Structures are given as structure tokens and as C-alpha cells.
């Protein structure tokens, strides 16, 4: 077997271990950080800021 074969088998093994870890219930690592650093309030939204001067459509006669 070549080095590429060993790398492929190692990747498959790592993917299988990760899948089992996720299926069997990975520990929640988000609660290990101190709560006073960054608190999330509400649901995050992807809203863009409103333009301060919106461009108005002008009527051009030809």
C-alpha cells in the first residue's frame, strides 16, 4: 500500500469517528466560555442597513 492509501484510510477512519461522536451526542462546548464576555440577545438577522438617502426614480421624457 502506498502513502496515499494510508492517508485515505486515515481520513475514512476520522470521518467515521466524527460521525459516531456526533450521533452519540457530542458534549455542548459552547457553555464552557465565561458568560460575561459576549452575550447573545435575540435571534440574529441578516438585515442590511437602510440607505440614508434613497435614490428616487426620475421621469425622463424623450
Overview of this structure, please?
It contains 1 helix and no strands. With 62 residues, it is an all-alpha fold. The protein is elongated, with a radius of gyration of 26 Å.
Could you outline the blueprint of secondary structure elements for this entry?
Layout: H1 3-23
Number of helices: 1
Biggest sheet record: none
Mean pLDDT: 76
Radius of gyration: 26 Å
In the predicted model, the low-confidence regions spanning at least 5 consecutive residues are none
Quaternary: single chain
Strand content: under 5%
Features:
62 residues, mainly alpha, 1 helix, 34% helix
Brief synopsis:
Helix content is 34%, strand content 0%. It is an all-alpha fold.
Amino acid at each position: 500500500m502506498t502513502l496515499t492509501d494510508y492517508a485515505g484510510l486515515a481520513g475514512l477512519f476520522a470521518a467515521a469517528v466524527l460521525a459516531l461522536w456526533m450521533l452519540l451526542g457530542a458534549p455542548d462546548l459552547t457553555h464552557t466560555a465565561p458568560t460575561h464576555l459576549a452575550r447573545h440577545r435575540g435571534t440574529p438577522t441578516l438585515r442590511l442597513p437602510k440607505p440614508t438617502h434613497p435614490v428616487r426614480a426620475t421621469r425622463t421624457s424623450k
